[in-house]
Structure formats: structure tokens, C-alpha cells
Hints:
By secondary structure, this protein is of the alpha+beta class. It folds into 2 domains: 33-272, no CATH class; 283-341. Helices cover 26% and strands 21% of the residues. It is built from 6 helices and 14 strands. It has helices at 173-185, 218-228, 231-238, 266-272, 276-317, 334-341, and strands spanning 37-42, 45-50, 53-56, 68-76, 81-84, 99-101, 130-131, 137-138, 141-151, 164-169, 193-199, 208-215, 321-322, 332-333. Strands 1, 2, 3, 4, 5, 6, 9, 10, 11 and 12 form a 10-stranded mixed beta sheet that branches. The longest helix is centred in the C-terminal third of the chain and has 42 residues, at 276-317. The radius of gyration is 36 Å and the shape is elongated. The termini are far apart. The relative contact order is 0.12. Mean pLDDT is 79; it is low at 243-251, 264-271 and 319-329.
Amino acid sequence: MSNDLSLPNGFGAVSSAFGGNKSSNDELGAGVASSYGIIGIKGKVWSTRFAGKDTPLMREDGDGPRGSIEVVIIKSATAISKIFYKGGYTDGSNAAPDCWSSNGVTPDASVQNKCNKTCADCPMNAWGSRVTEAGKPGKACADSRRIAVTPIADIDNELFGGPMLLRVPAASLKELKAYGDLLSGYQVPYYAAVTRISFDPKEAYPKFVFSAIRPITDAEAVKIIALREDKRVTTILNESYDARPVAEEPEELPASPFEKPAQVTSQVKKATGPTEEEKAAEAAAKVLAEKKAAKKAAAAAAAAEAARLAAAAEDDDEDEVVEAPATAGVPVSFDALLDKLL
Length: 342
């Protein structure tokens, strides 16, 4: 690995004939792309692709595939990218698409057989150019947004090439925007929070659900800030498509970096508000409390009415009450007062 390279002991100083010129040596790596990991989905199963190998992400207890991943979103591409497969995309396929656009405006220069000069008026980009399995109209050329992420359990993620690519499909772009708006409302940059990405259980297709877990720590923030300026992230966001030449496959891939879910803290609950489950529980508790209060008020009203009726019935059996002289201090009946005077 490149990290193992070093100069021999006593290598010595560079000749003064070079005038102190310290080359960046960038040209040595020109045109050679570093391999990066890709987080993909097949159905509602998460997987990683690295060094030519796809690996599904399974639960630690062995009870099926993971339902979510916990990451930090390092950076997002500003443009919506587009990919077109003539025969439709096959899950798990590494084949290059027939046409694609990284900027969503024109096909990339490397496309051999462009469907159209521009994306806006391309027939494959028109609504209704594809019919989904559910019989609904769609677009043959799929929209997506490329985001660079890293697992919170291992931000450096060196064994998987560092930052990883996650393509947010068209059906989840509104959810991605809503999540960004939510964080903006609390003045939390998206790259300053640990994000859990799961699947919407109400939908048959893999629709993403984004939720904030906690703010990243100061130590984590230092690494994320550095990654936001990393050339690998620029490559991930700007590269044309995912079916790219990969580095030689290692003898054994490392364990998945997604096996340690982040812990929810009370601090993030203050920042992002309660979850849907907490909202439902709170609403149910409120309804129950209101029912108890209404029942208690009704009982009190019934008791008061009973007391009023009893008092009214007792008054009907008594004579008119008049006020006694001040020395008496208590009211007496008219007959009792008359007897006293006589």
C-alpha cells in the first residue's frame, strides 16, 4: 500500500541545482484515479462495493440485512446527475450506462452514443418515457444526486478508500431536501450531524428516510472539515458514473465499517425534535390525559348538580328564612322569631 512507502535512511538533501524547487509531483498521478468505495442498494438491502467486490451489509446478530446506515454526509454535488440504460438498469450490474450526464445539462464528453445534445429536450428525459413495474409513468433517464459520505464508526475509513459514494435516487430527492431544510431550521450544517439513512417501511421500493442522530464531536469535526477539501471527495462528486475501473482486489476485504450504530443523545433531540414514534406516543398520552380530565370534570359537575338539587329539595320543606337581630348572629325561621317575640 502507498502508506507503506518511505525514503531510505540517509537519503540526503536535494541538489541545489534545482534551486530549491519543490515540485508537488502531481503529474505522476495524473489520469490515475484512486479507488473509492460505493454504498449501493439492491431492493432494500444495503451493500458496499470496493475493489471489485460487492458485500451486503448484514446485522451484527446475523438476523438479516441492516435496515439503516449511520454516516456523516461530507459533501453533496450541486447538480442532479442523469443515467440512461437502454434495457433498463439491472441491480448489481457493473456495466456502464448507455448515456449519462454528471451536470444534468449535457451528456458527458466520454459518452460514445449520446441520446441527445442536451438533457432538457432529450426524449429519454421526458416524463412518460418509461413505465414502472407498478404501471406508473416515469423517466427512462434516471435522476439522482451524488453525495460523499463516511461511516461514523470509522471516519477515516482507510480500508475502504476513505470517503464513499452514495447516490440518492430520484424518489428520495424530496426527502433529502426536507432533511436539509430541517437541519437549516435548527442552524445545523448537514456535515455537522450524524445521519441515519433507512428505508421507508410504507413503500415497496427503496425510498430513503433521513434522520439526525447526534451532532459530531469536536474531534470528529476536525476530520470532516479536512475531508470536505479532500480531492477524493471532488472525484466522487464529479465522476461520470460508478462503473469504473477499480484497483486490484485485496486478498481479504476488511470488516464492514457500518457495524456500530451511533448512540442517540438528548442533545440532538433538542436540536432536531422528537422522532415520529415519540410524537405518536406524546399524542396518545395527551389524548389519554384529556379523557381523564374530561371524566373528572364530568364527575365534579354531576356531584355539584346533585348537591344543588338536594339543597333545593330541603329549602322546599322549610319556611322562609329572615335575618335575625344582630345579637342573634344566625338566621331563624319566621315562626321561631314570632314565638321568641311573644
